[in-house]
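ugh ok fine here u go
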Amino acid sequence: MNRRGSVLIFLLLITGVISFFLMNSIYYAKLNQEICYNYSNKLLFSNDFKKLTIVFSELITKSGLYNDYFEGDTLKRLQEGTNIVVDKKEYFVMIQPEAGLFDINASNEESLKNKLNEVFTDRSDINIDEIADCILDWIDPDDIKRANGAEKDDYEKFGYSPANSNLKDVFEIRKIKNIKERDFFYIIKNDNNSIEYKGLLPLFTTYKSGYTRFNVASNKKETYKNILRLYLRPANSDNVYILFLGRLKGPFELIKWKKLI
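structure:
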């Protein structure tokens, strides 16, 4: 091979290396931009919800609902749904006091099946016995499988086992066998354009006695009382979010939020 050929090969190799590093840099820059966008977008949602919590807490205070119990016409209006505006953004909100919901951890077979029948009055595709047995098998401490239930062997394909203890969070219900996403939460639109939130989520709770968090600053456990659920739909959107609000001694605070739809 002559000298000119060697130089050409060398230049091609240099060009290839530079191209590789250039494409790699572009890829990671784009990836980093995407990660930053998603992170900032999540922070934006979180900040919006924190602002909304402050507005909502003020609304409750002005409405005379800033007590240990929530009752009266204002509560009824908030439970049926109302529009509020925060930073020129309009939201349709509905509340549920957590204290009025069914404590799934304290249920027995009879009470659970009665509540499930109440939940799924509009669903002919639901096997109440199957769902009830699977929930009870998830909660009870033994590995004895109920007639329509599920134990450890039934969860192997999912990569986890039943907790055999109380549900720590209402969203844990979604891990239980034979409970589909649509069983957990869905929307019904009525003829008069009103909507209903249906499924297990709107009627079940694991926070009947409050929600406990660990305060790093004080190095103590704190228990929120008067926990409220705030179902939130931004105007002109099909998305639905749920915010859990709790009060210690002062105004309501945002405990956590999740996107449902």
